[in-house]
Structures are given as structure tokens and as C-alpha cells.
Amino acid sequence: MAYLGPRLGPSRVFLSGVSALRLVSTAGMDDMGLAMSRSSLERLEFDNVALKKLPLDPSEEQGVRQVKGACFSRVTPQPLTKPRFVAVSHQAQALLGLDGEEVVNDPLGPEYLSGSKIMPGSEPAAHCYCGHQFGQFAGQLGDGAACYLGEVKVPSGQDPELLRENPSGRWEIQVKGAGLTPYSRQADGRKVLRSSIREFLCSEAMFFLGVPTTRAGSVVTSDSRVIRDVYYNGHARHERCSVVLRIAPTFIRFGSFEIFKPADEFTGRQGPSYGRDEIRGQMMDYVIEMFYPEIQQNYPDRVERNVAFFREVVLRTARLVAQWQCVGFCHGVLNTDNMSILGLTLDYGPYGFMDRFDPDFICNASDNSGRYSYQAQPAICRWNLGKLAEALAPELPPDRAEAVLEEYLDLYNRFYLENMRKKLGLLKKEDPEDEILITKLLQTMHNTGADFTNTFRSLSLISCPTEENSEGEEDSVKKATDLLIEQCASLEELKAANKPTMDPRELAVLLSMAQSNPTLFQMISDRATIARQLERLSKLKDLMETTQEELKTKQAEDWTSWITQYRKRLARELEGQSDVQAVQEERVRVMDSTNPRVILRNYIAQNAIEAAENGDFSEVQRVLKVLEKPFSSQPGLELPAWVGGGGTSAEGERDEGEEQQQEAATSMPRNPVPYDSKPPAWANEICVT
């Protein structure tokens, strides 16, 4: 609309001898030019059904407050100073019918996609929800930093597969980090560059890995600043306010239904809409009608419909966590408010992809008890589904919900085994002993400290035993063993990995307390945590008495044993097959399209963050390109852009805190490693909370 004056100006001038028809025609063409010159973001077609179908907070009161009897509150995003793009995902923007290049070059793009300027048709709002955090009901939470902008109609010609996954015909768009909402609690509603880059990159990385996820369309930074104490150690610094554009069919989560919860027996907190059961029914109707239309059509009985809906959520959640486990992804904060009602990966905070395989891997440094460790994820998702079932009662009868929950473990195991068979290239037969083979593989990886991603990627290089194979069995096994030994940890790495995280004196006190005062012990610790610490101590003691050569010999023995079993299983794949060559080629193809070459390791994200904080956004953009094709090699994109001065630095002012961080970062030795390699030694120092 900024062009309205200049565009219409000439048409008001009357020229002698020019017909009225020509004047009308010229005006029409000028109006067409105006429409074409508008920002593509101004042409998005919004249809904000959630705000029409679900209760909206009538209060316009500013500031943090309890919101009763409503699912959304209207908010006003707070503008950023000099917003600018860090990176744009062209493929995510295409969901909205936008051309990524056009968005990048749009001078209004950073303003619109940070909430600094409101698009026509957008209705900014924040969603009210509750949640169980680390097992305890926390009461009202809500969108403390995220802001619903509205729902964009799906453009014509969208991929039918996407429409199948999103039958609502609309994409909800959010900006995360756009300022205060009624749900900001003690925070300021802002996000900073490091957390925004991590969310942006991982949202897209998960999509291209084939894992259900919310999407990220862009990340914008600015000259606005907030103070953050990164490690909660009293060393606060100024950081740039940044905003991620998030895209999903809906961001409704398990915790959305917990706003009706009565007072919790442990915390005493209750949901802000306790007693408003009619709203629960409205929410269920909305979610099922919009996002599960087949269930709505096939179950005229309300109770049966609700049971079928819950069963589908259970199935999607089981499938999702199975996929996480198979790519080594750890969410970090699996609270009920971070679980999508559509079975999508939601809210990327202190997540992490496993490097060295460790079932007890904890990506969130704040998770002292290991509640959300890698191996705990399937059970925690089952627990969260139980809390969802409680929140849906009485619309969902508890006895029916419990019967559905009993199906979860079998569903999870089925999805997990199905994925793992693909990862191992076991495609022709389903052998009952496959589960044992997979378990032994993971045990061997754990014992040898093998890299999770690279070990699986290497398996397609292990040959199948065939009559035509001129190599002897012993030579083939040795070659495969040497291949996998390269992915194993060194003695020093294993020592560091098994060092107890608890001070020995604290451990001694807790062990004594467990015997003398079990009640007090249960209040401040738990037996599982102590058992993990004792196991680490035991392993460390053994490692201290081992040499590197002895360790390597033991690792080779472990892998030789497993590879021998694996090759026997591969041989059974070929039984009865007329075209052995075709079977082997299919095996390699499936394995290499299931086991990624590249994942978003913490050190890769950290390199991109540090470059961006220094004013150079090229590494974020480069990493995005690499992650868009995680299963294949991309010539020219093997190493970070800064290796050999390959990066192009955008000039940008830095705060004193940023300069100090950069100096600290560059003072650490950074040996450049390819994106598909094991992490460098300095990566162990990265701490994500």
C-alpha cells in the first residue's frame, strides 16, 4: 500500500484528446501493476479458523495473567530494530505458495516474518495451554514467546502427499520470539540468535530425514537486544533478538487439553479453565473435524469417534518416537506441553543428535535425573499419552483410553523393528532373531563407543557372502571390522565419557543416605541416578587399567563377532532369489536412503551460530543446504564455508558480550572436519540447557 499514492497520481491528470475509455483502461492497468508490485507476503490468503471455532479471550489487558475460559488471547507483536534475514528455507516457504528467492529479496520480508509488521489478514494471538514439566503439573503455561499469525490457505497445486498429511487445507504460521504475551511468565517473550538458529536448522533437518515435524520458514535477527545468562552462572551478556517463522497444520498439543485439569494432588495447581468442560468438547470437535476428517466421517457415535481419535494419536506418537530412536535424536524436554496432537516433533530447545552411542545419552544439561534421556523417550511418550487421556476425560472414557494405551508398546516395537530392518538392509525376510541381532549391534556400539550415525551408514559397505565372492570369509570379516573400528572411540574418549557427573563426596553421602534415611533420599535423588553413577565408576576403573592397544584389540573382537552373525543373516536374504545382484543393489539403495550421511550435530550448529553472531550468515545457509540432502554427498559442500576463507562475511556490529564470546570461541583449537565425520574433540565442551 506504500505505492498507492505514486501509482494513482498520474491517472488523476486529464489529458486533452484522450478518451474516457482509455483513461479507464489505463487506471485498470495501473491497479494491476499495483497488485503485482505488492509484497508476496501481502497477497497471502488467510482463513483463521481456530480463532472462529475456539474461545477467544475477551480481555485486552496487557501483561502476564491467568486466562480463563479461552484457548487464545489476542496479542500485539513487538517490532524489532532493523530486522534482517539470517536464512530462509525455500522449501518451507513453498508450503505457503511463496517463492523463497522473492521472499529473500522482499524489503518488507524480515519485518513481516518477524512480526514487526502485520500482514493483511493476519490476527496475532497466543495459545493458552498447560503442561506436566519433568513429571509435575505446572499449571498455566501457554505461548510465552510464540505468536500465532494466522492460517494461510494451501495454494493450488500443492503436493497431494502434503495435503494428505494436512487435510485442513491451511497452514498455521507462528513467529517465535516476537515479544510479551499473557503467558510469558517471568520472561520477556524474546528469543536470541543461537536458539533461533538451532530451531530453524533442526526443524528443516528433521523434515529432510523423513521425521514428522513442524517446519521453519525463516530466521530473522535484529539490532534489538536482550540480556541472557547462557549458562546460569552469573555471566550475563547482551544478545540479538531473533525470530523463527514456524509452520504446521496446527500447534495444538497435549497440554492444550490440560487447561481443564482440577487441582493437582502434588502441586496444588489447576488448569485456568477448570470446570469449563464444554470448551473441551469444542476443542475435540475442532481438532478431529479439521485434522482427522476421516475419523469424523467414519464414527457417527461421539464416544467411538473420540476413542478412534485417541488411538490415532497413540499410533502417530509411537511411530514418531520410533523414528527418533532410529536417527539417534533426543528431544530433551518431553513435557506434555511439547507433544503435538498430530504426532509431529514440536518445540526444538535443548535437543541433540547422539554422536557416540550411549543409551543413557542426555542432551539437556538441565536434566539432572535423566528423565528425558535417549532410552527413556519411548516410555516417557507413553506416560504423556496417559496424561492426555486423563485430560480428555470424560469425553474419552478412562477404561477405553486404558485399553488403547495397552496397544502403544506393540505399536512402538513394530515401527522400531521395521525401521531397524531397513537400516540393516534386511528386506526380504523377517527373521525372529532379527531383534537379537539389532540388540547385539547396539551393545557392540555401546561397548566400543562407536559413532551412531556413521556406524549405520557404514553397514551398506559390508558385503553379502555369495558364491561369486572371491574373498574368503575371514578376509571379508576383517575388512568390515577395520571399517567399523574407524568409528570407535579412543581410550581417552571413553575415559572422558565414563567420568561420573556427580562429585565423589556427594555420591558417598547419597549412598549412605539411601541406607540410613530412605525417605529423605527419595526426596533428593533416586536409585536409577545413583546406579548410573556407580556404573560409570566401574567402567572408568576398568579403562584406567587398559591400554589403547588392548582396547583396540577388544573392539576388533567385539565387531568381528557381530559382523560374522550379520553376514550369516545377509546370506539368508539371498536364499531363493534368482537375481542376487538386484537384491544386493536394492539393499544398498534402501540402506543409503535410510541411514543419513549427515545429521545436525551440535558442533555443526555451533559453528554456524558463532559465525552468525560474528555477522556472517553464510554458514547457516550452507548448513541448511547440506541438511536438505542428508543421504547423499554434495560436491563442494563437504566442509564448513570458513575453512580456507570460503565464507563471505557480512559486516555487522557486535556487542561487547558477543566480542568476548567470539574471542573465547576462536581461542579454542578448531580443526576443520567434514560435516559427515565424527565430531572434533572440542565438541565435548558444548553445553545445551
UniProtKB/TrEMBL annotation:
Superkingdom of the source species: Eukaryota
Keywords associated with the record: ATP-binding, Coiled coil, Magnesium, Metal-binding, Nucleotide-binding, Nucleotidyltransferase, Transferase
Region feature Disordered, mapped onto this chain: 637-689
Molecular function in Gene Ontology: ATP binding; metal ion binding; nucleotidyltransferase activity
InterPro entries: SelO
Coiled coil (UniProt feature): 530-557
Cofactor dependency: Mg(2+)
Family, per entry: Belongs to the SELO family.
Protein name: Selenoprotein O
Native source organism of the sequence: Haplochromis burtoni
Organismal lineage: Eukaryota, Metazoa, Chordata, Craniata, Vertebrata
